[in-house]
Amino acid sequence: MEIPKLKIGKVEVDIPIIQGGMGVGISWERLAGSVAREGAVGVVSAVGTGYRYPELVKRDKYGRPIGSVNAHSKEALTRIIQEAKRISEGRGAIGVNILAAITDYDRVARDAAEAGADLIISGAGLPLKLPKHVEGFDIALVPIVSSARAMNLICRTWEKRYKRLPDAVVLEGPKSGGHQGFKYDDCFKPENQLENLFGEVYEEASKWGNIPVVVAGGVWGYPDIKMFLDWGAAGVQMATRFVATHECDAPQIYKELITNLEEEDIMLFKSPVGYPLRVIKTPFIERLLSGYNGWKGCVSHCVTPCNKGEEAKKVGFCIADRLGAAWLGDYEEGVFISGANGHLLKYQGIVSVKELIEMLLGKRHDPTLDKVMEEREAKALSL
Questions:
Q1: Fewer CB within 10 Å of terminal CB in the chain, N or C?
Q2: DSSP SS3 for 216
Q3: What's the burial of 154, exposed, middle or buried (CB within 10 Å: 0-12/13-18/19+)?
Q4: pTM
C-alpha cells in the first residue's frame, strides 16, 4: 500500500500518523520531537506543563503547581514546543493537545500559537471558541469529535462566528486512553465503536468541503490504518503505543507497567472532569474502589468542570495531582492511563519511535498483530 501524505491546512507531513497528546508529561518534547523527526505529527500535551519545569512556577510544599497559571505554565509550554521543534530537525509537524475543559483554555491556546505550534488539537468538551483565541495566528485547528452531530455544531458555530472551518477533525472512538466522549454505558455500545461512527462523520465532513477526518481511539496497527485510509480517512491518531517507546517522556516505571498488563488491568473510572476515564488498575485505583477518598484539596484549579475541587472531592481524587504523581514515577499514588488495547504492548516491549512507526506502516514485523487477530477471532466466535 502506498502511504498518502497527511495535509491539515498548511501542514503537510509524509506519514499520516498523529501521535496523540498525553498529559501529564507523557507526550512532551522528547516524544513529540522524535515522532515529527520521522515525518509524522508529534503532539505535545498542554496539560500540567508546570510539572516539567518546576523552577519556573510557584508550588506548594508538596511540589504541586499553585493555580492554573502555574499548572498550565506558558513559559514551560513554550520551552517544550521549542525543544520539540529542535529535536524534530525541521521534519514533520509539532501540534499541541489542549483539553477544552482546562481552566485558562483561551490563554493556553494563545500560548501554543505564540510559541510556534503548527496545529492545535482540542477535545474533552466542544472547542466552540477556539478560533477566537488564536486570532491573528496562522495555525491549523483540529477539534476532536465523537459524532457527526458534534462536528456539525462546531462547523456551524465556527462558520457563523469566525468565518472559518476546522482544518481537520479527529473522530475519537471509546477505546482510547484517558477521558472519553461518551457516558460510561455508551462506551460499550456497538453503534459507538469507531468503525461504526466513521461513515456518518465522513459524510458530514464531505458536506463542509471534504474536511479531512483523522480517526482515533482503538486504532492499533497497520491493518487498522490501511482499513481506515481505504475508507477515506486522511490519517490516524494513536497514543498508547507511543508510551512504550524509549523516547516517550513518561518515567520508566510507566513504560514497564504498560508493557506488563493483562486486559483486566485496564478499566473505565469516574473522573472529576465529568467524563469516564480509562486507567490502569494500580494500588491507588484499588484503594478508591474500596471506598478510600484521596482528595487533598484543590491547589492547581486545573479544569473548570471540577468546580475548584468540588467534583474531585466527590470522586476521591484530584486528576492533576494524580497524573502529576504518575509523571514523577510514584506507582503507589499515581493514576496511569492506557487505551483499551494497552495489554497488547507486552508482546511488543519498549522500542524506538522509528521502529514503532515502521511497524505501523507495515515495514517491520509487528509482534502484537498475531495476538490482535487471535482476540478478534475469539470475540467473533463468542457472539
A1: C
A2: strand
A3: buried
A4: 0.94
Return d(Cα 84, Cα 44) in angstroms, integer.
8
- What amino acid occupies position 292? Y
Instruction: Identify the CATH number of the domain defined by range 6-56+69-249+348-377.
Output: 3.20.20.70
Q: How far is the CA of 70 from the CAs of 48, 55, 73, 111, 251, in angstroms? A: 8, 11, 5, 13, 22
How many CB atoms within 10 Å of residue 370? Answer: 11
pLDDT digits (tens, 9 = 90+) for 212-256: 999 999 999 999 999 999 999 999 999 999 999 999 999 999 999
Is 39 in contact with 14 (CB distance < 8 Å)? Answer: yes
pLDDT band at 383 (very low <50, low <70, confident <90, very high): low
Question: Minimal CA–CA distance to 247: which of 49, 59, 42, 105?
Answer: 42
Kind and range of the H or E run holding 276:
strand 276-280
C-alpha cell at 298: 484543590
Sequence ranges of the domains in the chain? 6-56+69-249+348-377
